[in-house]
Amino acid sequence: MRRLIPLAALLALSAACTTVPEDRPSGDHWRPRPGVAWQWQLRGRVDTSVDVPVYDIDGFDQSGATVTALHREGRKVICYLSTGAWEDWRPDAGRFPESVIGRGNGWEGERWLDIRRTDVLEPLMAARVDMCRKKGFDAVEPDNMDGYRNRTGFPLKAADQLRYNRLIAKLAHDRGMAVGLKNDLDQIPQLVDDFDFAVNEQCAQYGECDDLRPFVSAGKAVFHAEYELPTSRFCSDSRRLKLSSILKKYELGVWRRSC
């Protein structure tokens, strides 16, 4: 989940820096290596001309044809899904019973889910991951994976979050897809073996990037985005830590600056 920031903060500073090439994937599903460059675009028509080996795009909004076009250019494609929050505009929103929908998470139209109710959520999330697989995605970025640390309207515990996050990872792996741990820094030591990469927002701004070391130490990529800091404030540390870091604007359109 992106952090709550006032609308006025949407203007980001920019600067240029270099990227690190991707290692080859191996095994039964893709395993991105530390330092691989990426593009994160969740809004608008995907610009397939950005010269990076990894794209992270919206699973519902983008078609299999877009994924195929990116594959044609030799790129891996990550499917963005919200697995921990309900979104009122999604085509399957009506399939979620009110009993599992909690407080708003700070973003318009989004409310936390009761992740303890795996009896309800597992088939819904399995259908979403099936959608990603059918469109040809290589991996899943499941968002809102740290509800237990927020006011969700449910008495969620750390153990509930670990169980649910591992369930999401299994759904992806069972379908031959890689899966990333989104934020949820406190549980990285317990979850690093269950996930193939990490996705993080603003670890430099909040002094948290060292918490992501277990992924890099395990040979797994950390896809990292900042919104408010210029690249001169975080790229040096990102290169030292082998993070795949970019500067984005909050709307997550085409614009990016890389390290």
From TrEMBL:
Gene3D superfamilies tied to this protein: Aldolase class I
Heme among the record's keywords? no
Residue stretches making up the Glycoside-hydrolase family GH114 TIM-barrel domain: 38-252
Output the SUPFAM superfamilies linked to this UniProt entry. Answer: (Trans)glycosidases
- Please list which residues make up the signal peptide: 1-18
Does the keyword section mention Translocase?
Answer: no
Which keywords does this Swiss-Prot/TrEMBL entry list?
A: Signal
Q: Which domain of life is it from?
A: Bacteria
Identification of the protein by name: Endo alpha-1,4 polygalactosaminidase
